[in-house]
Amino acid sequence: MKFATFEKDGQQLIGLVVSELGLLMPLQISEQKLLGTSLLPATMNEFLDMGDAALDVVAKIMQACDGSTCWQLSDVKLLAPIPRPRKNVFCIGKNYAEHVKELATLGTNLPEHPIFFTKPPTAVVGTGAVVKNHKAKVTKMDYEAELAVIIGKTASNVRKENAYDYVFGYTALNDVSARDLQARHIQWLMGKAADTFCPMGPWIVCKKEMGDINNIAIQSRINGEVRQNGNTSQFIFDIPTIIETLTSIITLEPGDIIATGTPAGVGMGFNPPRLLNPGDVMEIEIEKIGTLVNTIEK
Hints:
This protein has helices spanning about 25-35, 45-50, 50-65, 95-100, 180-185, 190, 205-210, 240-245, and strands at about 1-10, 10-20, 25, 70, 75-80, 90-95, 115-120, 125, 130, 140, 145-150, 165-175, 175-180, 200-205, 215-220, 225-230, 255-260, 280-285, 290-295. By secondary structure, the protein is an alpha+beta fold.
């Protein structure tokens, strides 16, 4: 199942996506019409809070579905699946060996332990959104295609072997980066956390539909040209390791997001660098999820 947050006629709702048919089923409206109940909430955070109970209601809606409550995807505006995360997005740096090597100017040592940084909720935007160029402060903008993990239930001191029990699903994320600020401020917050620097989407895919998450293709395209062409099989630290490490001291909650790092092929890794320009179109495509598309502010 694929779940999206969208806007239609000025109202923000969540829906079940049938992407291959270009359809979306608004969950609250469908539940009320098809089942005569009103159990599902209007936001993705609240939906995730419900856990399995929410999925049980969705299953009943699907059984009763007659097509009467389905809308065309083209008739709605997709937002980030979680438009306003409750806390910062957790991000993993240096999680693909070839990416570490290509960014020699930012340090080439392979990490012995996961490296974490965060992006604030104000950085999050959805597919189709314009990414600000922050031209008064930023001169070296870059893209990073990443698989993002959506946490489905409260997780503390989780062991690796149980880590996937706490995952709800996955989405695509673009870790837009200001390389000049990243270098100037030494640590990565200023270079990674600017407004609109965390595009996500187009929707969340439930973990069961993803199959082997350690063999998922990840690609980025800039103005149609392939720049990154990686696979999660290249992770240095797999998702269970990341979750175990984080939850050893931080409690994760439903709706928390973890970006798992980017493969080689970022703009800064080319010689000379091939950084982003105003008007550039960024596409992040992840196998079994779909494509996240954003344009840099002109």
